[in-house]
């Protein structure tokens, strides 16, 4: 990043990242993109990509601005250079007379990339790398999916006591966290292609795993249950599988029994031996981002297999002393050998605290 970035551009990039979230649950599998137009340090236009197939952030910002000529466009992703579902954004930027473009991260999508070079060819000044880490975190599932096709981007969400228990000693998990955190979870679910739990959680909590918040997803996330030996058929998840897509993953040895138990329910059965093959099967089924909500056994196993990319950890201000651990025992690691996670967000959520952690940043090459 060069010295040419101004304070107003940094503020505009923060605003662009915020605006981009307007597409949460609606834009995927496309990225979340926000764009701000600045003139003499003042905002003269704003836009975001509101939904898959809808106009790109750049086009919205230009269309709604009264004075795009001579302005600086600040946005979190390199403008596209391709004719996709909408015309190339670089053309719109050049035609509008924008004189400078500030970008957080380049677009690794082979169809759309190359906007930087095209803008430069048209005589427009371009800067890249401003708030690149924040932008990479924002679009991690999109950036990940272009790099890796073997499994979905995997996030874990847990709500625990301060001492790390998901449920108390009597097995009760409702409600460790407060109402604000529950609203957050419904918002969170809207942004994932799949919401998963293990068999024990499915059978003891009998959850719905649907999105019941203010932001409705464009496509309802698929519910996924990881099992060995099938799943009880009287569960809410099974009974509503004709209304909400539901996948049950079972080991090959239990396939026939599971098929009989779930016949006619609408559940899609996938058999896979082991966690990575199960995740690979989910990716093949179109699930690019997966949110795992429990229980402790599944989360611990996924962490041990190094399959977790992100953690949303809601900490309630209580001690439980005993109960079900979110992060169970693992092979000991000595200090110095432990690989630190990257804290990308710390937020008060009512009386609770959200800590968001990323295993590594998916930064595209600049
Ligand atoms: C978006 N929104 O604001 C920007 C995108 O399928 P299309 O034609 O909508 O193009 C999608 C690609 O365009 C997307 O994967 C990304 O590489 C690029 N930029 N996409 O959906 C936007 N700026
Ligand atoms: Zn575009």
Note the main attributes of this structure.
binds ligand AOF, 28% helix, Dihydrofolate Reductase, subunit A, Cytidine Deaminase, domain 2, nine-stranded mixed β-sheet, alpha/beta, 16 strands, 366 residues, single chain, five-stranded mixed β-sheet, 2 domains
Written description of the protein model:
There is one protein chain. The protein has helices at about 5-20, 55-65, 90-95, 115-120, 130-140, 140-145, 180-190, 200-205, 235-240, 255-260, 275-285, 295-305; strands at about 35-40, 40-50, 70-75, 100-105, 125-130, 155-160, 165, 195-200, 220-225, 245-250, 270, 290, 310-315, 325, 340-350, 350-360. The model has no long low-confidence stretch (mean pLDDT about 95). About 45% of the residues are buried. It is of the alpha/beta class and about 375 residues long. The strands form 3 sheets. The protein has a 9-stranded mixed β-sheet, with helices on both faces. The termini are close together. The chain folds into 2 domains: about 10-140, Cytidine Deaminase, domain 2, CATH 3.40.140; about 150-360, Dihydrofolate Reductase, subunit A (3-Layer(aba) Sandwich), CATH 3.40.430. The protein contains 12 helices and 16 strands. The structure holds ligand AOF and zinc ion.
- How many domains? The number is 2
Uncertain residue segments? none
Q: What's the multimeric state?
A: single chain
Output the strand order for the largest sheet.
11-10-9-8-12-6-13-16-15
Shape: globular
Number of distinct beta strands: 16
User: What is the assigned CATH homologous superfamily of the largest domain?
Assistant: Dihydrofolate Reductase, subunit A
User: How large is the radius of gyration?
Assistant: 22 Å
One letter per element, helices H and strands E, the order comes to HEEHEHEHEHHEEHEHEHEHEHEHEEEE
Q: Tell me the number of helical segments per DSSP (H or I, 4 or more residues long).
A: 12
């Amino acid at each position: 990043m060069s010295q040419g970035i101004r304070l107003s551009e940094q503020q505009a990039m923060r605003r662009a990242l915020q605006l981009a979230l307007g597409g949460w649950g609606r834009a995927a599998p496309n990225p979340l993109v926000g764009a701000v137009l600045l003139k003499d340090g003042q905002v003269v236009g704003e836009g975001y990509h509101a939904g898959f197939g809808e106009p790109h952030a750049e086009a919205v910002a230009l269309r709604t601005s009264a004075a795009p000529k001579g302005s600086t466009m600040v946005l979190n992703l390199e403008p596209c250079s391709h004719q996709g579902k909408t015309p190339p954004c670089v053309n719109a930027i050049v035609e509008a007379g924008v004189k400078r473009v500030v970008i957080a991260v380049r677009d690794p999508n082979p169809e759309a990339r190359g906007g930087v070079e095209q803008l430069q060819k048209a005589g427009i000044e371009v800067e890249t790398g401003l708030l690149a880490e924040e932008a990479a975190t924002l679009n991690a599932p999109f950036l990940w999916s272009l790099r890796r096709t073997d499994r979905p981007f995997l996030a874990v969400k847990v709500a625990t006591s301060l001492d790390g228990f998901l449920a108390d000693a009597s097995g009760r998990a409702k409600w460790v966290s407060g109402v604000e955190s529950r609203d957050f979870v419904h918002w969170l679910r809207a942004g994932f292609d799949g919401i998963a739990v293990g068999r024990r959680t499915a059978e003891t909590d009998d959850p719905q795993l649907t999105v019941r918040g203010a932001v409705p997803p464009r496509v309802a996330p698929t519910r996924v249950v990881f099992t060995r030996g099938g799943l009880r058929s009287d569960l809410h998840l099974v009974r509503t599988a004709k209304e909400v897509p539901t996948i049950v993953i079972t080991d090959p040895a239990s396939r026939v029994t599971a098929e009989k138990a779930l016949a006619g329910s609408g559940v899609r059965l996938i058999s896979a031996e082991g966690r990575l093959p199960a995740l690979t099967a989910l990716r093949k089924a179109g699930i690019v981002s997966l949110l795992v909500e429990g229980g402790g056994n599944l989360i611990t196993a996924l962490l041990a297999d190094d399959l977790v990319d992100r953690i949303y950890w809601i900490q309630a201000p209580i001690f439980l002393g005993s109960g079900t651990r979110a992060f169970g025992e693992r092979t000991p690691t000595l200090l110095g050998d432990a690989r630190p996670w990257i804290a990308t967000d710390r937020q008060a959520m009512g009386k609770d605290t959200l800590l968001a952690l990323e295993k590594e940043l998916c930064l595209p090459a600049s």
